[in-house]
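Quiz preparation item.
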């Protein structure tokens, strides 16, 4: 009787937790605290489901097997990643976000901002590449990039060695496109906005003025393409590995809570 009551309470708790977790996943804005809750929520749901399904051998094996499989994938030996193959995966994932609405701090197809677009595209691009090639290196890099959020300014400044500088130009309209690779980023010199090069003189951006993700081909009258920018390259997409010991901790965007919630700027 006591065990039955505990199981009833577990079922009720699991139902509520699933509702809350769905709301969390659908909320487009991510902060450090929401990423932490995502991890804790997934672990809690898994643990409660295992408790409720323990008497069913097939379900128990399914849950335990899924956990073992996930651990094995992340623990797989790492190999050198093909930059060209990763670029292709990055481009494919970026286009999943095409026409998503602009939401500051957003990182999902339901709403996304400029740095969220270029960063989350690489997160899922690396995950896709790792699963497709059974390579632990991009899978682990995807997890780290998901956990360590960063702003456009941080990408400009090489936060955590994620990017390396290429050159600075007066405007995107005036770039020498022979020097660019797919996935290279343009960041405004003030660090306010960023966009990704997707080939054929076309850029993808979450445009705050237009309120959505767009692809823009140059030359264009779009104001973001007429101001000075810094061109940078993701280290993960670089053909030659560059030093990664630079840190720009003051410019990172690892937000525990929304700015201003307790009177901040």
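Solution:
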């Amino acid at each position: 009787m006591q065990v039955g009551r505990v199981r009833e309470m577990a079922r009720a708790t699991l139902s509520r937790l699933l509702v809350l977790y769905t709301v969390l996943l659908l909320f487009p804005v991510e902060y450090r605290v929401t990423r932490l809750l995502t991890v804790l929520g997934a672990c809690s749901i898994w643990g409660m489901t295992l408790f409720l399904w323990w008497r069913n051998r097939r379900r128990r094996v399914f849950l335990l097997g899924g956990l073992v499989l996930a651990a094995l994938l992340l623990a797989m030996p790492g190999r050198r990643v093909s930059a060209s193959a990763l670029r292709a995966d990055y481009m494919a994932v970026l286009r999943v976000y095409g026409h998503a609405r602009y939401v500051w701090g957003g990182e999902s197809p339901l709403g996304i901002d400029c740095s969220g677009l270029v960063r989350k595209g690489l997160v899922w691009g690396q995950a896709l590449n790792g699963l497709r090639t059974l390579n632990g290196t991009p899978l682990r890099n995807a997890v780290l990039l998901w956990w360590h959020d960063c702003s456009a300014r941080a990408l400009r400044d090489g936060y955590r060695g994620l990017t390396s500088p290429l050159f600075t130009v007066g405007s995107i309209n005036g770039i020498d496109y022979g020097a660019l690779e797919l996935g290279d980023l343009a960041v405004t010199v003030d660090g306010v906005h960023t966009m990704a090069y997707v080939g054929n003189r076309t850029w993808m951006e979450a445009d705050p003025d237009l309120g959505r993700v767009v692809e823009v081909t140059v030359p264009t009258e779009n104001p973001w393409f007429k101001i000075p920018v810094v061109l940078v390259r993701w280290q993960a997409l670089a053909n030659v590995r560059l030093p990664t010991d630079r840190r720009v901790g003051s410019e990172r965007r690892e937000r525990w809570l929304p700015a201003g919630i307790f009177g901040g700027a």
